[in-house]
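Sequence dictates fold. Below is an illustrative record:

_____
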Amino acid sequence: MKTLRRYEEASGQEINKDKSFYLASNYIHDSRHNMIQRLTCYRYKSFPFKYLGCPIYSGRKKICYYTDIARNVMNKIRGWQGHVLSPGGRATIIKHVLKSQILHILAIVTPPKTILEQLDSYFSNFFLEKSVKKNKYHWSSLRNLCYPTDEGGVGFKNLTNLCKAFSTKRWWMFRVANNIWVKFMRAKNSPRSHPVSKVLESKHSAAWKEMMHIKNNIEPYILWKINDGDSSFWWDNWIGLGPLGAYINGNRKPDNMKIRDCIKDEAWDINTITSLVPNNLLNHIKHIPISDKYINDTPVWTETSNGTFTCSSAFNSISKRRDMDNMWKDVWKKNVQFKMSFFLWRAIKGPLGIKVGCHSIAYTLKEWSNFQNKNDIQRILCQVYMKKRGATVDMKWQWHKICSYMEDFRPRITSTPVIWNKSPEGLLKINTDGSSNITKRNAGIGGVAALYDLNWYKQNNVTNCILEMDSLMTVNMMKGVYKPP
């Protein structure tokens, strides 16, 4: 308490005792509770509790600790359920609103598999315009949606792979950092042995178990650049092929052996290395450079070009990938609306949900990609679909038929009548919209006309005037509602 009071005096911040509490064992006596409460003025609270939305508990991971996370997401979805949203709007909400709501929790802990499956079900039902409470037939599984667009997916990210990516980040920090959390985890879980050689036991905590499950998949991507040789000779990946301990059978692999023990006069001690590793690895080790001995060994993340760890690169290394197809690059383009690209995606995948036979679109896109001088296939197919709305598009697509559709297609031109109201008596009214004269081949731009009118008013001292414009932003700036840039 003396330390807390010194902190309050030094920082000028006061600890809120109403929001503070203390944790203690369930087996201490009531008299000890009374003494702690009298000295600290804090109330007693037991596990589990929440801090910044993250459940803090002791013991096994239970589903009941994470039900509030799924409930908050479901309530958020219900708020958007009644809105009329396009597929692109729903995809944007899922990517940037709903998943960002739980992203900080996934970065710290990994929810149970049941909670992750429940969240995936909520996202899938919302994207497919289904009720949150009712599970209906899905024309496409979420597994197919959670692929990059150039691999045949929609661009969603799988929550399970996201959790694995954050576990990878924790393992990376545990291996390369030296902060308080790393010192605590090493002293608690691997005080005498190397963490790579550590065997998982049932008594370990849930956080350590998650890191141990991911270490075998991630260690090959962590390469140690040799400088002072302080890395482990057997268990750090400094040869680029994984730890040496995985290639050697037997128990003659002490964890405290360093790489510097095999370096002599800033070069490899071949005699020592020959007695430890087989000949096929010896030739590989001879070509590994040794850098500055006054610098610590540097960890390099091999999945990025600069060697720096990123969660996106970890996510890509964990996720199952498909072969990239140029057809999907033609389907998903930035200048095409999401709903039209998504329509083509559904047509190619098959589960279109309506009686329109567009399965030959996939064949057309693949054939179109073979032409070097190709046009925008999305524009052609979308215009053809809009022209033939209500009819079945089930013919076999051929080159001459596509050309005929292109030649016969005429865009629908619409016009909107504009009424010019007479100005009140005593007021001068001038319209500043852009205009054109086909016979004289003259055209005026709205902004130039507006500037000319204002200068004309000023030169002729006209004050009683009405200025009509089609730019609401300019009108608000003239009225003082907006500040001009």
